[in-house]
Amino acid sequence: MTTQPVGQRRTYLIGKARPNAIVGKNRETGEIVLIVVGAALGMLCGLAIPYLPLRILGLITCPLLAFAAVFLPYRHRTFYRWFEINRSYRRTLRNSATYRSGAIEAGTRLDGREIEVGPPPGIGRVTWLTAPFGPDEIAVLLHLDRRTATAVIEIEGPGVGLRDSEDQEALVERFGTLLKHVANGDGFVTRLQMLARTLPADPDAHAKDVAQRGADDAPGWLKSSYDQLQSMVSTSSEQHRAYLVACMHYTRELAAEAAAMSRATGHTRDEGLAIVMARELNDICARLAEADIRVRQPLGQARLASLLHSMYDPDHPIDHIQAMSRRNAWPAELDATEPTFLQAKTRESATRAPWCHATAWVKEWPLTPVGVNFLAPLLVHTPDVIRTVAVTMDLEPTDVAIERMLTEKTNDDAEASRAAKMNRVVDPRDIAHHSRVDQRGEDLAAGAAGVNLVGYITVSARSPEALARDKRTIRASAGKSYLKLEWCDREHHRAFVNTLPFATGIRR
What we know:
Blueprint: H1 29-48, H2 52-71, E1 73-74, E2 77-78, H3 79-95, E3 98-100, H4 103-106, E4 126-133, E5 136-143, E6 148-156, H5 165-184, E7 189-200, H6 205-213, H7 220-232, E8 238-249, H8 252-265, H9 269-290, E9 294-298, H10 301-312, E10 333-335, E11 342-345, E12 355-364, H11 376-379, E13 386-396, H12 398-421, H13 428-445, E14 450-461, H14 464-480, E15 484-487, H15 492-495
Antiparallel strand pairs: 1-2, 3-10, 4-5, 5-6, 6-8, 6-9, 7-8, 7-13, 10-11, 11-12, 12-14, 12-15, 13-14
C-alpha cells in the first residue's frame, strides 16, 4: 500500500500598511510638520524669553507637547488623529448633522423629468447618467467632488469554499490575471470595489412555495416525509449578494476620450463619459467570465437606487425596483448626531424606529500567511447579522509598483545596515517585513499588478442595544479572519459612504 504525497496549500501575505512621509519612518507628513513646529517654537522660546527658568520651560514644553500629540496613545488613537475627527464632528453638528429628503415636495416637470433631490451628508455632489450595456442599460454616477465615475454590476461568485485547494488557487490566479489586465491595460478603470451584502431571508419561503405550488394529489406519506425533512432544516436563512464596482478617475486623457465619443455618437460630453465606462465594463465582464465569476446583471438607475435604498433600510427588498428612481435612493431621514452610530429611516419602514448603522475600517490585515478562504468567518459563518463588507482596490501598473517596492526595500536595507553598525538587536518583525517585501517583489517580477487595498464593514440593527451586540459578534468573527477592526466613532456618516457602491475610502 502506498500513499500519495499531499501538496502544501499555497498561502498569501498581505503585509502591514506603512504611511508614506517626506521625512521620517512610518509617520504621516502632518505629524512630521507638527513635530517640526513644536521644535521651532521651543527654539523661539529659548531665544525670545529673557528669564532662564521660563526659557528652559519653553525649550522643553513645546517639543514635548508636539511629541505627545503625535506619539502618546489616547482612546486607541492619538491626540493628533482625534483633533481633526472632533473638529469635523463639531462642524457637522453645527451645519448638517440631520437630513430630511425633499422627494415628496420636489415634484415633476411637465416633460416627465423628476426634480433632483440632494443626497445625505457625506455623499457629495452626484450626477446620474445611463449608457447602453448589451440588451440592458447601466447607471453611471459622476462624483463631482471626488472627480470620479462609477458603475456597478451584480456578480455571482464561484463558491470558493465548495472547491478543493487546487481549484481555489486556480481561481485566485485567474482573478489576479483580471487585476493585472485592468492595471496594465490601456483602459481608464483605476479602481475596483467588491461589495458583499448579507441580509436576512424569509426562513419560511420554501414552505410557502411548497404550499403554493405543491401537488394536492401527492401521496400522504410523501407529504409527511417532506414536512419532517423541513422541520429538521435550520430556520435561519440569509441571502448573500455580491457586487463589483468599477471606478474611473477624471483625467485629461479620459476627458479627450469622452469628447471624441460624444462627437462620434452625437451625445453630450457627460454621456460620452458614460459610454466609455460601459465599454470598459464590457472588457471587465469578459475577464470575469474567464475567472469563473458570473455576471448576473448590470445595475441600471432603478436597481442601483433600490440597492442604495436597502443600504439605509434593510427591510427594503433589493429586487423591488418599482417606482425606484434616483431621488428615491436616499433615506427620508438621517441623523448623524450620535457619536457611535448613524440613524436612518425611510418612509416605508415597518416601524417608526430608525435603523442604526455602525462602520468599522480594517485597521490591520493578516500579518501571517493565510489561505484563500480566510474571510469565510466574516462573510459566511456569522449568522443573523446584517452587514456589508467592502474591499476597495486601487490598482497600479506593474512598473510603478516595482519602483515603489524597490524604494521601500532600499530604505529597509539602509535601516538594517545602520542598525548593524550600531550593534542593535535585530527586530524579528523587521525580518518578517523584509520577507514580505521580497515576496511582493517576486510576484511583481512575475507580472502581477500593484494593489493598494482598504476594507470597511457596516453593521445594521434595529436598536442601539442590538447594534452593540452585533458589533461584538462582528469583531469576534473578524478576529477569526485575522483582522483587526476599529469603529469610526464621530465620523460614521462619512465612513458609511465607504460601504456604498462608490469605490471610496482610499487615497491615491
